[in-house]
Structures are given as C-alpha cells and as structure tokens.
Amino acid sequence: MTRTAFLTLTHFFHEDITAEAQKIASATQSLGDSWILCQSSPAEAKELHDTTIPVHYSSTEALHALGFPMIAKTVVPGSATFSLLHFARQHPEYDHYWVIEFDVRFRGFWKTFFESFKDVSIDLIASHIHRFDEEQYWHFWSLEHPREHIRIEDRIRCFHPIYRISKRAITFLDSMLSQGWKGHSEMLMPTLLHHNGYSIGDFGGNGPFRIKEKKSFYKGTPPTIIGRLDEGTLRWRPGFKRVGMRWNKIYHPVKPRTLSKELSRTSRT
What we know:
Blueprint: E1 4-10, H1 15-27, E2 33-38, H2 42-45, E3 55-57, H3 60-64, H4 82-90, E4 96-101, E5 105-107, H5 110-115, E6 124-131, E7 143-144, E8 156-166, H6 167-178, E9 182-183, H7 185-194, E10 200-202, E11 249-251, H8 257-266
Parallel strand pairs: 1-2, 1-4, 2-3, 6-10
Antiparallel strand pairs: 4-8, 5-11, 6-8, 7-9
C-alpha cells in the first residue's frame, strides 16, 4: 500500500493557515497522513492555533546542520526544500510527499486534485517546468559542484509552491546535495532528477513536460526570456487577496489582508 504525506509548509502560524491545513487533512484522510511542516523552531513560530494536525519543526539551525550548500545565508531564497529533506530523513516511511505552501489555495475540492495523481508514478510533479532555452535570463540558472558539471543549455526549471516528490527522488537529492551540488531548488531539483533518469511532470500549463492525460490544474504565465511568473492563477507575484473563480485551478500566492499583515511582521530575509 502506497503511503503519502501531505505537508503544509509555513514558517509561522495563523488561523487562515491552520484552517487550510485542516481542510487538506480532511480531504486526504483516505489518501495519507497530513502534517504541518514549520520552517521555524517552536519558540520562533509562537502561537499555534487549534489543530489536530501534527507539526514537524525544522529551524534554520536544523537546516544548516544538514550540511547542504545554500545559495544564500538564509533558507529563502532557494533552499525551501531543505525542510522537506529534514522531514524525510526522520519520516522515511512514505512513498510520496506532497508539499503545499501556506499561501496556496484550490478553487475546487482538494481531494479531486490529489486523487488525480494517486496512481501516477512520476517522481517529481510540479508546475511551470521549462528548459533553459525558453527562459534564458531567469536569475537562478547557476548550478555548481566541486567536480561535475551540467551544461546550462541542459538545465530545467520549475515552480514549486505545491509539488509532489517520490521517496526515491528525495533519497537521490539528499545524496546529491551531500556531495556538494549547489543551486536554487526550482532548478536544481528538476535538472538533477531529469539528467539522472528520474521522471518529472507538470500538472498543468502548456509546457513540454505537461502530464498530457491530466487536465490542467492552473493557468500559467507564458514562458518569457526573463522567466518572470506574473500572470495566471499560479504565479510568483502579484498576490491575490482572495481565491479566484476558475474552477479546479490552483491559486498562488493568496494573501488576504489579515494574512499579509502577519506575513510582513514575520517576514524572513
């Protein structure tokens, strides 16, 4: 029986966040286990609103202790996936891991979305997967290793406010990072996986990696030479004040006024 973890990723607690995490937990109770994956220590996260969902803490100190090279001194930008790797080391019992950032919302039934991929064996399912030649002036194409090299022309990027990754892919990435690979996770993950025989797929959009047999679960930004994701329902910015009306579509970033206010107070450099 395949085991799946559904992880709401956040670095602070707010009633909107825990309410959405509870909504996901209710929708997926027959599909797997729900967690809150908190990129803070218990003291830093402060108030925990009422929730029955277990919390896994991964403080900045704990993430540095993994020994993986970061592209900056802090987790953001580029190393947000380290929290998942920290979780997976302590919870290797899962076959797949879904990660859903705190400002992701779905106009529809979460169970419909997750069930669509229950029997899909792809190692990494994410959004906006494109090759270097489509978005050459995106800021984060740099990929380093002490001895090995992947040509920039062969690199791939994705966007991962919400994504699913297999256990075998996580184990592989943990090993690669431990060996010194360094880069922004939105490029490092799909590039290393794709070039080492792992499968990657896009759950929507119109890119070359779209999972063709599935409906598109987001309206994306057409690829541009600078790779700026500023259109559609699943984008980098600007944020949404509320979930849009397109049915069966992922929205990101959704930041109601109360959440934006709390986010500005707890923002991380």
